[in-house]
Amino acid sequence: MEKLQDRFADIGEFIPQEDDDVIVCRCEEITKGEIRKAVHEGIFTISEMRRYLRNGMGLCQGQTCGKMVKGIMAGELGIRPVDLTPATARAPMRPMEMKILANDRNEE
Amino acid sequence: MKRYELIVIGAGPAGLSAAIEAAKAGMEVIVFDENARPGGQLFKQIHKFFGSKEHRAKVRGFKIGEDLLKEAKEAGVTVQLNATVVGLYPEKEVNVRIGNEIKHVKGDAVIIATGASEAVVNFPGWTLPGVIGAGAAQTMMNLHHVQPGKKVLMLGSGNVGLVVSYQLLQAGCEVVALVDAAPKIGGYGVHAAKVSRCGVPFYLSHTIKQVEGTDFVTGVTIAEVDSSFKFIPGTEKHFDVDTVCLAVGLNPMSQLAEMAQCQMEDNPKKAGFVPAADEHGRTSVEGIYVAGDVSGIEEASSAMIEGRIAGISVARDFEYVNEVEFAEKVKGFETALGSLRQGMFAPGNRGKKIEKTEEGIDISTNLLKKGYLEDEVFHFPGVKKIKGLHPVIECTQNIPCNPCQDACPKGCIKIGEKITSLPDVDENSQCVGCGMCVASCSGQAIFLVNEDVGDGMGTVTMPYEFLPLPEKGEKGKALSRKGEEICEAEVVDIRLAQAFDYTNLLTIKVPAEFVMNARFYKAI
Predict the structure, then answer these.
(1) Do A99 and B273 touch (CB under 8 A)?
(2) Domains of chain A by range and CATH?
(3) Partner residues linked to B490 by β-bridges
(4) Helix A32-40 and helix A66-77: axis angle, to 10°?
(5) Do B126 and A108 touch (CB under 8 A)?
(6) pLDDT confidence tier of residue B248, bands split at 50, 70 and 90
(7) ipTM of this complex
(8) How far apart are CA A85 and CA B493, in angstroms?
(9) Would you identify the CATH topology of the domain B120-246?
(10) Residue B264: HSE in the Cβ half-sphere, 13 Å Cα cutoff
């Protein structure tokens, strides 16, 4: 069960930081600044962030950046990283060509 | 749908060990692994493992991997490689991609042993070619025999960072610095010491500010950080490098467990988001078990025992072994696992500040902050001034390891019942100079010293794992624990025996006043 975030929490204004242009998700090339801004636009959960910016939706499926995204979002929200539920794990666990999925028939 | 009694996901140390135990009990077992080679990370481990003699201490990782594969084959385990499990469902349906097809199979039981992936940290330039994980460096060097670069900076002073730095040196790379944001070295002191004596400087409370280059890495700037990990202006240091290696921890690859609806926990003690499991590896979903790093980051030796426990636990739950056999087997495994989880680096001690050894000796802060011991080395029971030839054991932290004790045929070395105790050198025993202790020490912390061989000279025998081997009669420089040239040294002997397992014993002659400082040799 996803822990509910207080949507009305006052997290203050977005204040630009020096390292905002550093890439966090290298598969989808999403920067720290983009993630921080998105929090201020109302994106409070990791699942929402993935849909909003596509971070963690590339080749490694967030295995590399997941922890960093969590840390940045928690920092922005003023909560502990453990209070953010990680992204939902779904099949396929590894990137796969569409044709393989399309040919997947439960034959036996 | 094809059905198996047990499906193990991952053919690393935990998965193979689990498969072996279940198969030995009579179960039909298949192991899926997405890689082209089995063994997980074991085949990249060219160093000798720590632990007790009974649990493969002083054996090199890849050899342990070979033995596991052989044991799995003998037990009748099927290992299917290039088989990527892409889905796992609560009814224990496993979707596995083999070639261009997805196969749907079912297991009466499933053991998830998918291990972990490397964590990263980001900084400007971290996506440039040349910034790599320590695991990638090991793959390149130890599996493919390719140097990852010529000049390397290592970030992370845990055992992975330390061991891989040493391997980079062995592969002929230059390691310009070992950097960690923490104020203390995270890994074993003995690993740090063997990197230090090769002349690699440690920068604690430092981290990477940026990596430079347009198409690939050409340099890196580090800077000191304060106690809240903020950069301190004016402390920048620049290094020309072509490679930056990251060894900043591991993340459990636990997604399959979550997909199968196992209850999960975000547990900092286990270094991540992991399935909750009981002491026998059972998750909250009946028939789904976990073992190894996926259930909490430790190291390969514990993963292998966890795997065996999960394997025998499945066999018990499916009535292939009875309660009595189970209890007997598990007791042995749990004792072994318990002993590996002792000492100052035990999982239970994570984050704790330890100031004294179990013997009540002050922990060397030099070792923790600079990577090498200074005069405090004489406070430890393995370091004594004894007339004639004798071992000097620079083992100063309580870690679960004891092969040196049995290595000495004359009984000069004592650790005792408790595996984490510091080795003690007996002043009255007769060292014959066989060198078995030197080669047995996985931490390369044992030296044979003779303070007086006449003419004001002494000798130091050290473990030497570099090529080309120096030749007898050759003259070079002796290096201190810090890696500084301290005096002339003449190679008087170089020995290799099968029992040394590729650890050469290099004996150098140096002026007597340097025998307690000369700890490495550099050819000129």
Answers:
(1) no
(2) 23-102 (1.10.10.1100)
(3) B475, B509
(4) 40
(5) no
(6) very high
(7) 0.92
(8) 60
(9) FAD/NAD(P)-binding domain (3.50.50)
(10) 23
